[in-house]
Specification:
By secondary structure, the protein is α+β, with helices and mostly antiparallel strands. It is elongated, with a radius of gyration of 15 Å. The two termini are 18 Å apart.
Amino acid sequence: MAESVYKVIELVGTSDESWEKAASAAVQQASGTLRDLRIAEVVELDLQIEDGEVKTYRAKVKVSFKLRPRP
């Protein structure tokens, strides 16, 4: 079996509805430009608060994708 190498990047997704939608937004956006996404790990959740109300849910997500071997 050939060895594989993966790169891990960190993304922050946002949503005005939920942390789940914030994480999903990050993965969806990344899948538009990165190929072979493998794992997404939510590493941090936070909120943006304005005037005592939750304004934005934020999810920090680590996403890994497989690097292609050089030709």
